[in-house]
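so the lab meeting is tmrw and i was supposed to have these ready like two days ago... anyway. pasting both below. for each one the top line is the aa sequence and the line under it is the structure tokens. i havent really looked at them closely yet so no promises
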Amino acid sequence: MDNDLMDRKDRFADEIARIDVVVQVLLKGHLLLEEALTRLIDLYVYDSAYLEDARLTFKQKLNLAKALTPKLGASSGWGVLDAINVLRNDVSHRLDSPERQKKTARLRETYFRETPPSDLIEEIKRGPDSVLIVAACAYCAGFLAVYESVAKKLRPRDDGSAEPTRPPAGT
């Protein structure tokens, strides 16, 4: 076997054997957030089959969700979602990206700027990147769940009437 082939075989074996926790939590978190974005968008459209056929990217879904949803409160998870997506795109296309640290730093800065104060912030700041990514994905999942809840309350009734479903008074 020639040297190039052996080098490729060895690299393949090394990379497959190595578990990168940051990549693992980032990819899973990104998938869960994309599912949440899709659910949210689906609440605003009458026939989501057309969106499935469009094969929208995460960034396109993010922008569409931002365009469809009302503005809620002062804190925003949109920037954190975007930073997660930028980092995910980098690590999913390059094993040893020279940009990974810069994009992780962008996520870190965006997360700490946009999230409300919490008892866990100092622990997240001191923790490894995997802890930051889990926290950022969890924050965004909750952020999107709030928008999903609002969208469900504003959605027209299934009986065809134009009157949106509203929660009972006092809730």
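ok protien two:
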Amino acid sequence: MPYFSRTFLFVAIVIVSAASLSACGWQLRGYQQYKAGNIENIGAVNLRNTADNRLFQSTLKKQLADLGISLSNDADITLVVNKEHTERRPLSYSSTGITVQYQLIMTISYAHARAPDNVMIERELIARRQYDFDTALVVAKKEEERTLLQEMREELVTRIIASLSSNPAAH
């Protein structure tokens, strides 16, 4: 097969693969791309925490700082993080009755208000992940669980910020 046709075939496969992945909605996890201009609707946030969820709070503060959103006691937007709840459920068992797959469920309750009316809107968000568990790899699986929990926090923070940035007139 000549060099030109192999190169052409390779490029064609890459283009078709990229088009297929983007068409199905697949995307990398991470910071959400916010709609242009909407993130400026936030400006600053008065962040209050009524629960002991320092890991969630630090993730929230980091993502706000990364987006250039400052924390201020006299901000137009007040965000109150009420409760974080994490649950680990067995999903499937082996033939000997040992759990081989778990589901992680993280729920965050929060409320936000926007000046001048300052009416608190309460919301609850849920993130779910599942992972396989192997008793021979306990340390590695515990690390995988910690990583999944952090990804879930980041997802929930992204969703909270997106709700704050969307349509300020509706708040």
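from a quick look at the 2nd one: The mean pLDDT is 81. The helical segments are 3-23, 54-66, 138-165. will dig more after coffe
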